[in-house]
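Q: Hi! First time doing this. I have a protein sequence and I read that you can turn it into a structure. Is that right? Here it is:
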Amino acid sequence: MLDPSRLLILLALREQGSVTRAAEQLRRTPPAVSQQLARLEDEVGAQLVERHAHGVRLTPLGNRLAEQAERIAAALGDATDDAARFRDEHRNQLRLGAFPTAGLALLPETLAALRHRHPEAELSVVDLGPAEGIERVAAHQLDLALVGEYDEALDVPPGVRLVHLLDDPIHAVLPGDHRLAGRLAPRLRDFRSDAWACAPRSLPNRRQLETAARAEGFTPNVTFEFESYAVAQAVVSAGVAVAFVPRLAVTDPPGTRHRPLASGLHRRIHAAVPTSTRHAPLTDVFRQLLHDICAELVQRR
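A: Yes, that's right. Below is the predicted 3D structure, encoded as C-alpha cells:
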C-alpha cells in the first residue's frame, strides 16, 4: 500500500513545478522531499518525475497518482473541518457521573459555581456506581465521574486517573436514646451487642466494617441489609438498629444522632478523569471547583 503522505508530495510538485517550492509548501526541506519522492518511486517501481532545467514535471503515471493525491487532500481537509466543528460544538459540554452521596452533597454547589462562571455550559449528570463511572470515563462516555473508595482499591484502567478530593469519615448513626448517644467518639467494639443495619456483603463498605470489627475482636450482628444509606438511617430512627455511614451521607432523620468513630474509618472520594490532555475544556474547571468545595467542607468540620 502506498504512503498517502508521499502521494501528497506529488501533488505539491505538480502545483509548484519545483522541488524547492514544493518543500516550502509542505514545510519540509528540499532533501527530505527528494528522499520521500525516491522512496515512492521505489514503491511504485516506475519514474514519477522528470527533472529539467527550470524545475520538475510529472510523468503520465505521476500525474495519475497526483490526481489520487488531490482526492486524498480533499478528504483530509473535510476531516479537519469536521474535527473543528465537533470541537466547537462540544467545547461547552461537560458529561458527569456521580454516586448518590456525591450527587446530594457535592454536585449542587459545584454545578452552581460552574454555571456562574460559564453560563453557556451544557451539563449532563448520570447516577452510577464507582466501577461504571470509571469504565465510562475510559470509554470517553463521561468527562468526569465522582467515585467512592473504601479499603479495597478501585480498578483503574489505562486512560483514567483518580484525583483525590476528600476523606469522608464514617459516623455511627444511633437512636436518640441509645446508651452511647452522648459519647463523642465511640469505638466500633462499643456496638458489639447492637443490631446493625449495613450494606450486603457483596459491597466494599460492608466488608470494610467487618474487617474493622474483626480487628477489634468481634463479629457484628447484622440483622438489616440495605444498599441505601438513607434506608439504613430510617431503620435507625425506628430505634431497632445502629448504622455506620460516611459523613456526607448522614441525613439526620428524626430521632437519631450521629458520632464520628474513634477508629478513623473513612471513605475516599475521587474524581475519575481522563489521563489525556485532550479532554473537554470544562473538565479541569469543574475539577478545581470540586477541590475548592471539598476543602471548604473539611474546614467546616
